[in-house]
Write a structure and sequence with these properties.
heterodimer; A: 171 residues; mainly alpha; two-stranded antiparallel ribbon; 7 helices; 68% helix; B: 268 residues; alpha+beta; four-stranded mixed sheet; globular
Amino acid sequence: MSLRASENDDDPGRLYERYGPALHRYALMILGSHQDAEDAVQQVFLALVRRGSRRVPLDSVQRYLHVAVRNECFTLLRRRRDTPTNGGDALLEDVASGQDRPDERLALEAALRDLPPEQREVVFLKAFEGLTLQEIADLTTESINTVASRYRYAMEKLRAALKQEQRHGDS
Amino acid sequence: METVEFEDVERALGRYRPAGPTPEAAGRIAGALACHRNRPRWWAQAAAAFVLLAVPLGVWMWMSRSSPQSERAEASVPAGFAAEWSQQPRIELPWVTAEAPVVVVGFNDWLCSGCLEVYVDLEPVLREIEQRHPGAVSLTLEDWPWDLECNPYRSSPDPAQKSMHPGACDVAIAVRLAKARGEDSDLISWIRAHLEEWRTSELPEVLRPAQDAPGRDAAVAAMREGILKGQRVGINTTPTYFVNGVKLSGLKSREIEWAIRLELERRK
């Protein structure tokens, strides 16, 4: 499928309506900041517009956008290696109302913030997007062993954070 | 290779999902895309660009003969940025009393390389603008040192969290003291040239003002006041600049310059 920025279904505005929120979540998990995520997603879509009628021969629009956002995020991270960001941006929101576990959410957010962006990304793609490790390896162009390791390290840290939160809750 | 060993963590994560964009953020991006989408075809753009360039160029050349210091700036602000700028939310900075047409407030950590880059980029721009429009732009730099010694920011609930830039409070005071002596530009240039050296070593003495240094108390008070202002407006990134109440965060020297020029044009 080729991608053309024009007045048809591949119009960047319509693509943003369809994929924008999911891409923002992806960028947020990598960058840890809503402002940065917004900037990254906007840059990707504006680049799409600037291509005009140039065709981008890719097998899927969604994958193209994910790869583009990913590249933009890591470019941003390289550029601002030592600029602290995010401070207090919320990374997670409740799926269902009435769950009433604010401490658990805060513990998970804090643990996620402490992860390297690459590990956060794998957690997002596997735990939230439901991709397999192989699919994540294809998207990130990393080896499946690297992806599996990142996932394992990340989940072990999240598990430790949850156990610590539970201990505080019991005391 | 797939594993169920983290089922408990996945179950916990399953109660949440990553936060999405706010409606305002989504609206901003959609608006920016709509602006670009409504552009005419390339040949019409080329024709329009030719006309748009030829006419102002002719006017500029005519005006240059009688005004050697002609404006270079407004023509260089991208149309896309100008369109987006007009839609940006503005907040009130309640402490600002400056009456200049353009009020710029920046929040800085002098141990943050991004802050140094933006500062160095903006210095000649602001000097040029001041020459052409004396008093039109008011710039105030506040301190936002990522140092828990003076700034109780928290990026994690962990009580053992370390400062991101240890010593940044001292450096903020040192820069303020240097500014009082008219030597801040030199000191900032020096910090920028040597920043990498201090990643694993102690800051040099010149950046650690003595407790009894003249003017230190006032510098400390000004720094603390800046931190309180930053807390009021929710600073979570440095550098962050506000141009007439519109926030720009990160390495955005060009955007800050464009914003200042647009605001100057708006307030003529």
